[in-house]
Design a protein that fits this description.
The protein is mainly β and 142 residues long. The protein has no helices and 11 strands. Helices cover 0% and strands 46% of the residues. Strands 1, 2, 3, 6, 9 and 10 form a 6-stranded antiparallel beta sheet that branches. It has a 5-stranded antiparallel beta sheet with strand order 4-5-11-7-8, with no helix packed on it.
């Protein structure tokens, strides 16, 4: 089964035979993904690329994991963030931290693909490269 968002940004591919249960162990009957207008803060020097999305219903678990493919606009990548270093992360409410997923960045098609096991808030993230050190004046021996 493949579900794509109305704007074409997100595609969720659920393999045949996948068990998808909600937090009460009932079979999943519908999916939703909405823009998270107030996503949790990211670590220093890390940015959300584009928009964060909250997937629901909350608490859904997939066995085996599903594949999420997310399109991004290169114009959304801030200066100092390398496109090939983009990542896909989910917000862990239990630890109050973003968790980066193993993902594949396709810079030719501007997509990021990762396996996900559950629904929560997800975002494409990018960390700015640390600035190059500026050499100071050479010290002279005394």
């Amino acid at each position: 089964v493949e579900a794509t968002s109305e704007d074409g940004t997100l595609t969720l591919t659920i393999p045949e035979g996948t068990i998808a249960l909600d937090k009460d162990d009932n079979p999943l009957i519908s999916l939703e993904a909405g823009v998270d207008t107030n996503p949790p803060p990211l670590p220093k020097d890390t940015s959300i690329i584009g928009l964060a999305y909250d997937f629901g219903p909350d608490g859904v678990i997939f066995d085996p994991p599903t594949t999420l493919t997310w399109s991004y606009a290169p114009n959304d990548i801030p200066e100092g963030v390398a496109e090939e270093d983009l990542g896909l992360a989910w917000y862990d409410e239990a630890t109050d931290k973003w968790v980066e997923l193993d993902c594949v960045v396709d810079t030719r098609n501007n997509t990021i693909t990762a396996s996900i096991e559950h629904f929560t808030t997800f975002a494409i993230i990018g960390a700015a490269a640390p600035p190059e050190p500026v050499p100071g004046p050479a010290s002279e021996p005394v």
